[in-house]
């Protein structure tokens, strides 16, 4: 089973790119972020035609998450628990059944948090605390769990081309990285780092200042795995070449293969 994550940065603008990538990579489940449209405007039919079930949780012009699955959804839950007043569409969870049992997947679009020393960064930290609480509860189920998405967190200096450029940025502040490590310390596995310690594994290149041409990238899109999911991990990839396509997102897909037989 192949499970992927991709911040598409507007699904309406990237539908053709998404369709091309789905045909090329053939993932079983895809978590999308920053779809930037209400549920009714999501190009559901174009994706269902490719053989995917579609679950969406969107809002107009901002944020938005979705999950595409070749398997039927057993359960779909929108919104991260912990704040009933939070209206931002940043979290969607789904459960599917395989021959090996249930697999739970969440599509996560963690707040950016910039600029620091503002309410935006406070919101980011509160959101990360809520994610930690959710993760503790889900890990207690002792089932394969994949938390996939754009975390807006650069975990370490090895995950950024030029660390000096990011000092003081909300994505790289010590407090941000500490909360990400707290999630890992709950027992989660960073799929990419489980497969490689290499530098230069990036998932995002800004549109500005020739970042793509200079390979001035960062790794902020992550697949975090419960122990039960990590035990099934057999391969990981970052589809860097997608960034060179016409009208690309500034993010690229990250995927992982798991030893999980479908029905």
Describe the structure using short key phrases.
single chain; 263 residues; alpha+beta; six-stranded mixed beta sheet; 6 helices; 12 strands; globular
Can you characterise this structure?
This protein has 263 residues and is α+β, with helices and mostly antiparallel strands. It is 24% helix and 25% strand. It has 6 helices and 12 strands. The strands form 2 sheets. It has a 6-stranded mixed beta sheet. It has a 6-stranded mixed beta sheet with strand order 5-6-7-8-10-9. Helix 3 (119-139) links the parallel strand 7 and strand 8. Helix 3 runs parallel beside helix 4.
Q: How would you summarize what this structure contains?
A:
The chain is α+β, with helices and mostly antiparallel strands. It has helices at residues 11-25, 44-48, 119-139, 174-185, 191-195, 227-230; strands at 2-7, 29-33, 53-57, 65-69, 75-78, 91-98, 101-109, 145-150, 189-190, 221-225, 233-238, 254-258.
């Amino acid at each position: 089973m192949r499970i992927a994550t991709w911040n598409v940065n507007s699904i309406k603008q990237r539908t053709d790119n998404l369709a091309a990538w789905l045909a090329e990579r053939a993932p079983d489940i895809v978590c999308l972020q920053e779809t930037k449209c209400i549920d009714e405007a999501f190009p559901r039919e174009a994706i269902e035609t490719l053989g995917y079930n579609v679950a969406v949780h969107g809002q107009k012009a901002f944020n938005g998450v979705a999950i595409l699955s070749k398997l039927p959804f057993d359960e779909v839950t929108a919104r991260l628990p912990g704040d009933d007043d939070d209206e931002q569409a940043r979290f969607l969870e789904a459960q599917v059944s395989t021959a090996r049992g249930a697999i739970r997947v969440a599509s996560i679009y963690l707040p950016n948090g910039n600029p620091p020393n503002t309410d935006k960064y406070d919101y980011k930290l509160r959101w990360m605390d809520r994610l930690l609480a959710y993760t503790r509860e889900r890990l207690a189920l002792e089932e394969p769990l994949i938390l996939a998405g754009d975390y807006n967190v650069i975990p370490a200096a090895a995950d950024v081309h030029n660390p000096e450029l990011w000092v003081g940025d909300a994505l790289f502040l010590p407090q941000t990285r500490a909360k990400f490590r707290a999630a890992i310390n709950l027992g989660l596995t960073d799929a990419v780092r489980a497969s490689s310690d290499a530098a230069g594994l990036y998932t995002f290149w800004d549109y500005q200042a020739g970042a793509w041409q200079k390979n001035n990238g960062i790794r902020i899109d992550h697949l975090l795995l419960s122990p039960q999911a990590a035990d099934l991990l057999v391969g990981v990839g970052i589809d860097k070449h997608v960034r060179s396509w016409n009208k690309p997102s500034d993010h690229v897909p990250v995927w992982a293969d798991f030893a999980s037989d479908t029905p």
